[in-house]
Amino acid sequence: MSNTTPDQKAKALGLVLDxxxxxxxxxxxxxxGKLLYTSGHTSEIRGKVGQxxxxxxxxxxxxxxxxAVLRSxxxxxxxxxxxxxxxxxxxxxxxxxxxxxxxxxxxxxxLVHEIFGKEANGYHARSAxxxxxxxxxxxxxxxxxxxxx
Length: 149
What we know:
The protein is an alpha+beta fold.
């Protein structure tokens, strides 16, 4: 997939990019000039990493949450081909002694790298933080800042 575009890579990975049937309560992706700021998007997987879930299950949850973030970015930008991922914030529902939040949020970063390229527009800054709880008991929440090129 080296000569394929980010849009083609996302399609090959099976990302859901179709419009939502109704307008959400909050803006899931706000545009300010050439920047896009997403709301936090959550995983479908629920539970506390380090107690109910393994690092691998948390990784899958982070990938799920990032897929939702990418859908919002795509719906606002119209394409991934002119988008650069600048910053990710990954929140992990974790036990107080859990020390591998970065390994969990690698699920989000790895998906970005697969679509945008690790050495290209997917090279991003990131924070991976553990939280005592997340909305509705989800395992992971992710938000992003992107630049329109």
